[in-house]
Each structure stands twice: as C-alpha cells, then as structure tokens.
Amino acid sequence: MRFTLLLGLLPLLSAAPALEIVNPIISQMDGGAVDPPGFEHTPGEVVFFSCHIANFTKTSEEKIRLAYSVQAFDPKGVPLADIYKNEITDEVGPQDKNWLPRVSTEIAIPPLVESGAYKIVVKAEDLIAHTSTQLEVPLLIKGHAVDPSDTLVIRNFRYLHAEDDLQAMDKPIFHPGETLWAKFDITGYKFGPGNKLDVSYVFSVLSNTGKVLFTQPEPAGDQTESFYPKRYVPAEFSVALQNSVKPGDYGLLITVKDAIGNQTIESKQAFTVQ
Questions:
Q1: Taking the alpha carbons of 78, 194, 112, 189 in that order, is the dihedral positive or negative?
Q2: How many CA atoms lie within 13 A of 82 on its CB side?
Q3: Measured distance between the N- and C-terminal CA atoms of the chain, rounded to whole angstroms
C-alpha cells in the first residue's frame, strides 16, 4: 500500500517568537532625550539606561516572571561596576496586550577611564519558559589620553598659569608674584588586592645650579581601592613665586613612589622667572 503525504493540506505550525530585549535607550538624565548616534559620554558621568523585554511567556493565571541583569564593560571586556540584577513579577491581562516589562537603571562611568567603544550588556531570562537572551548596546566614551606603561612613569607634564587652564603653556615663563601651576599624570604602577594602589609624589624647587630651594613638606598621591582599576593618577601642585624671587632659570624635581610595585622615579622640569 502506498501513502501519499499531501503537505498542502497540513496545518503550518510556527514557533513562538523568541524572548527579546528591545528599545534600548541611553540618556544623560532619567526620562531625558535619547543620545544621538555617535554621542560620546565623559568619565565620571552617570548615564541612564532603559529597555523593554518582549515575547515573554504567561502562565494560565496571566502571570509573568522575568529576571534580568545590566552591566557595562570597557573595550577590553573589564566590567566598570558590579552587575545589577533584578526580577519582574506581574499579572498581564488581555487589556495589557501592548504592554512590555521595562528595565531601567543608572550606570556610573568611573572617573579615569580612557576613550573608546564601551558596551552595556543586558541579559534577560524568562523563568516560566526557561529561555534567555542578551543584547549588547554600544556606549562611546571620550576620556583623557594617557599612554599606558609597564613601569612607573610621568605622562602629560604641563605648566599652567592658573589651576583651571586647559591649555598648557608653550614656554614656562613666570614672573615674581605669580603662582606656578604644574599638572601631570602618573601611570605604570602596580595594583594590590581590590585594585588597591599606593602612589605618592613630592616636588622640590631647584636653582639653576641644582641647589634645593624648597621641598614639599608632605607627599601627595592616592592610596585607594576601587572596583574598576584606575589607569592613572592625576597630580598637581602650585608654587607661589615671591615678589623677591630673582629672575633666572629654575627647575622642579618630582619624585614619584609606587609602594606596591616598589618603584621610584624622578623627573626634572625646567622653568624661567623673568
């Protein structure tokens, strides 16, 4: 006996839509305007993230149960902060056919991160259907440029006329009665447990013959722990030039110590008083 299968007469069965994360939004304020394409956030900023979960499963009692997590990562895959987790349990009736569960949280960008293409990873799990999904949302950050180093080093040394100046002086020429400002970045130090660092620095003012005229009485620096490793330590100090200071060539001797990595370096920077 021959059997003929008439496919055209069989009902077509389609799989239910898969669990999905939709409508991702990054904004500078809660409920604010969506960031335009290519928008760059800044280190230390708090961004507001939200999205929705679609194609979830309901029980016979019209209930849903979802779990989700949100976490941001740098370009190398290192998390910026601890993972945020939560669950959504609700009752969804026929009148809520267009309603979607909303995920909403804040993401604090660490203050010293570098520029690059970061990402927000959102994961969702349907605890009733036992399905899961995830979505990666790009997050662009424009940070302060500090070249990395395997050993302790000073980067981006600059003289300034005022503490808030953004542009470094082309020629470090000061006058009696002015305040000399110096800023630089320290990197290449080692970390202890919990991303602990122990970096300190002192400076001395030198005459043109190398004689020490003044030394900072107490070292400054950073001895902290953080979830995300600080890639550099910003440093600054000022020197009030007395009206009686003689014109001539002078120098700064900066000594930096990394207690955890057992490293010490010195750097000399010249300036002139006219």
A1: negative
A2: 4
A3: 112
Q: What are phi and psi of 178, to 5 degrees?
A: -85, 165
Q: Which one-letter DSSP state was computed for residue 137?
A: E
Instruction: Give the residue from 130, 146, 219 showing the smallest Cα distance to 186.
Output: 146
pLDDT tens string 258-267: 999 999 999 9
DSSP 114: P
CA distance 161 to 32: 38
What is the predicted pLDDT for the residue at 3? 44
Q: Determine the Cα–Cα distance for residues 210 and 230; give it in Å rounded to an integer.
A: 34
Can you tell me the distance from the alpha carbon of 72 to that of 239, in angstroms, rounded to the nearest whole number? 41
Domains along the chain with CATH numbers: 17-141 (2.60.40.3880), 153-273 (2.60.40.3880)
Between CA 21 and CA 102 the distance in angstroms is 10
Backbone angles phi, psi at 193, to 5 degrees: -55, 145
- Measure the CA–CA gap between 262 and 264, rounded to whole angstroms: 7
| Separation of alpha carbons 52 and 34, rounded Å | 15
Cα 212 to chain centroid distance, Å, stands at: 39
Amino acid at 263: Q
Strand, helix or coil at 194? helix
pTM for the full model? 0.86
| 75: Cα within 13 Å, side-chain hemisphere | 9
